[in-house]
């Protein structure tokens, strides 16, 4: 006897397979038409046809009404925990004031750092919990969350303690990344290496308190160089962390090549990645995490070269980059539309990028991103008739119901949230 049986599934995207899905393989989507799915003890216990389901018994039956059912989505790059908001910067941007000038006026990331330092742990928790509710409502069951709005010992710890508590209390699994090397704080403008050393020392506390699995760095002109990033990430690896890189977001510095060199689990942004860097990436185990929402919101019309990455054989994932400055959205479904329009990814490639490849980008490829017997039952029931419909009908939420570990944790019309 099953705990839950989902019947009358029009299209079931199982994403069945082995390992991350690279290059050409992203073009074919493992799916079953007219399927049914059984759950027992929080895990997928049975997959069959809708006719076969008539012989099965279960305590609870959900009718998918002939619509789409997929694995829970994974958002592998967010800056979930922060205080404040920066809506006033939108009009500054419209007036043609550059981000660098906004920064000089104490705006930009530095204003978020100020607000986050000033906020209590409880305030940060309540705000992030609201954002996480909304992330869940869009069908995401696993999310990565970075620190990096403290840039000092106390606040970086505070952000990661909030993320840890969210992971313990919220249905969504939260994978934590220590991004102390997100920017150079004002008090260290003239000696950034001392700041990096302070962040390296902080890694020992992170390890002891199990506050982060990943360490990340912002490798960019005017922030941290490739050489600083190499040393920093090697130290992180020696301390037992998996690593990620904010690489080549604006300039082709060589962050993509560095990601491959240090064996990063993911290289993120990659808008400026060189052809040589893309080639190396395609022949590595590093996942390319692309953030078209950030390119869209910056409004410069330049996007990562996803076509070259996929054509050369890379495994590509997509993320919101949810943050208060360059990508204030929790909506991964909108990112899927942007990927179709501006990264020229096909619907089949896009679904790989928000499920199994995204799971691999946060070291959860063995348990999330696929619907297979024995895996955790993280499942989304959609109002969409088929998988192509989701990126097509844009800007809205197509999710009807979300299950995490076999339990209904979000349902259309119930628990709708309003946060800012
Ligand atoms: Zn980021």
Q: Roughly what fraction of the amino acids lie in strands? A: 15-25%
Question: Helicity, in percent?
Answer: 25-40%
Class per helix and strand makeup: alpha/beta
* Biggest β-sheet strands, sense, barrel: 8 strands, mixed
User: What ligand species are in this complex?
Assistant: zinc ion
- Over the alpha carbons, how many angstroms does the gyration radius reach? 21 Å
The number of distinct helices, counting runs of at least 4 residues, comes to 15
Averaging pLDDT over every residue, what do you get? Answer: 95
Report the span from N to C terminus. 44 Å
Q: Uncertain spans, ≥5 residues at pLDDT below 50?
A: 416-420
User: How many DSSP-defined strands?
Assistant: 16
Shape: globular
Summary of the model, kept short:
This protein has about 425 residues and is α/β, with parallel strands linked by helices.
Question: Could you characterize the architecture of this molecule?
Answer:
The protein has helices spanning 88-94, 99-104, 109-118, 121-137, 153-169, 192-208, 226-238, 255-262, 275-282, 292-298, 306-312, 332-342, 347-354, 356-361, 389-392; strands at 2-13, 31-40, 43-49, 58-63, 68-71, 73-75, 140-146, 173-181, 214-219, 242-247, 266-269, 287-290, 316-318, 379-382, 399-404, 407-411. It is α/β, with parallel strands linked by helices and 420 residues long. A hairpin with a 2-residue loop joins strand 2 (31-40) and strand 3. It binds zinc ion. Zinc ion is lined by residues 77, 79, 246, 321. Zinc ion (ZN) is lined by residues 77, 79, 246, 321.
């Amino acid at each position: 006897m099953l705990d839950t049986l989902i019947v009358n599934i029009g299209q079931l995207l199982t994403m069945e397979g082995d390992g991350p899905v690279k290059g050409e393989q992203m073009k074919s989507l493992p799916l079953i038409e007219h399927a049914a799915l059984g759950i027992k003890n929080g895990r997928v216990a049975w997959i069959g046809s809708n006719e076969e389901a008539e012989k099965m018994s279960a305590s609870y039956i959900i009718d998918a009404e002939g619509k789409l059912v997929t694995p829970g989505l994974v958002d592998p790059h967010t800056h979930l925990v922060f205080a404040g908001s920066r809506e006033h910067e939108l009009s500054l941007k419209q007036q043609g004031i550059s981000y660098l000038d906004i920064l000089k006026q104490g705006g930009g990331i530095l204003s978020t750092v100020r607000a986050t330092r000033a906020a209590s742990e409880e305030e940060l928790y309540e705000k992030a919990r609201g954002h996480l509710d909304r992330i869940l409502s869009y069908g995401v069951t696993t999310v990565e969350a970075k620190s990096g709005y403290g840039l000092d010992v106390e606040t970086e710890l505070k952000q990661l303690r909030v993320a840890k508590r969210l992971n313990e209390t919220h249905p969504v699994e939260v994978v934590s990344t220590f991004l102390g090397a997100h920017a150079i704080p004002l008090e260290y403008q003239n000696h950034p290496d001392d700041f990096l050393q302070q962040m390296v020392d902080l890694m020992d506390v992170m390890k002891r308190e199990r506050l982060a699995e990943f360490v990340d760095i912002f490798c960019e002109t005017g922030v941290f160089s490739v050489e600083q990033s190499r040393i920093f990430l090697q130290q992180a690896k020696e301390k037992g962390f998996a690593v990620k890189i904010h690489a080549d977001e604006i300039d082709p510095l060589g962050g993509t090549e560095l990601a491959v060199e240090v064996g990063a689990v993911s290289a993120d942004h990659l808008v400026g990645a060189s052809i040589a860097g893309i080639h190396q990436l395609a022949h590595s185990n590093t996942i390319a995490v692309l953030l078209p929402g950030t390119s869209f919101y910056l409004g410069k019309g330049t996007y990562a070269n996803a076509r070259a990455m996929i054509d050369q054989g890379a495994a590509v994932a997509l993320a919101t980059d949810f943050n208060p400055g360059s990508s204030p959205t929790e909506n991964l479904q909108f990112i899927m539309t942007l990927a179709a329009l501006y990264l020229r990814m096909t619907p089949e490639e896009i679904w790989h990028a928000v499920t199994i490849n995204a799971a691999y980008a946060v070291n959860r490829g063995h348990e999330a991103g696929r619907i297979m017997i024995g895996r955790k039952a993280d499942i989304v029931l959609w109002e969409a008739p088929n998988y192509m419909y989701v990126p097509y009908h844009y800007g809205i939420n197509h999710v009807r119901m979300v299950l995490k570990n076999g339990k209904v944790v979000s349902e259309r019309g119930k628990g709708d949230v309003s946060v800012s």
